[in-house]
Amino acid sequence: MMRATKEFLQSVMDKLSSLPALDSRAMFGGYGIYSGGLMFGLLADENSLYFKAGETNLADYQLYASHQFKPMPYWEVPADVFEDDALFLKWAERSVTQARLMASKK
User: Fold this and answer.
1) How many Cβ atoms are within 10 Å of 105's Cβ, its own excluded?
2) Cis amide bond preceding 71, omega within 30
3) Dihedral, CA atoms, 51, 53, 56, 61, nearest 10 degrees?
4) Is the confidence at residue 28, as pLDDT, over 90?
5) pLDDT at 4 > cutoff 90
6) What angle do CA 25, 26, 31 make, to 5 degrees?
7) Fewer Cβ atoms within 10 A, N terminus or C terminus of the chain?
């Protein structure tokens, strides 16, 4: 299995630069992506990007027949979404909201 590259991570971080307190951490051959200390994104495998999904945004991923990074609540970001900067940022913001909601329920 190939690992996520630093170049792809930098590309993702550049596209998400307007999110507050944006950070990334290396983990298990990939990277976790955080906003405000909450993990909402995951880079894994061969440069696949996943965002946290749940009750507030899962329908968006299902509409695109996205794949889940099982058993975690992360779903692959469709290429069409990644390529549309405004839409990509909107999906990221929704994922941060979902991460915040999930953290508050723990």
Assistant:
1) 6
2) yes
3) 80
4) no
5) no
6) 80
7) C
Is residue 1 pLDDT above 90, yes or no? no
8 A C-beta contact, residue 99 and residue 77: no
Instruction: Say what the pTM is.
Output: 0.93
Residues in CB range of 77: below 8 A, 6 or more apart: 49, 50, 51, 66, 88, 91
What is the mean predicted confidence (pLDDT) over 52-75?
96
**Burial class of residue 32, CB neighbours in 10 A (0-12, 13-18, 19+):** middle
Nearest to 82 by CA among 18, 26, 8: 8
Residue 31, beta-bridge partner list: 26, 43
Residue 70 clears pLDDT 80, i.e. is over it:
yes
pLDDT value at residue 79: 96
Which two structure tokens, joined as six digits, stand for 69?
């990074």
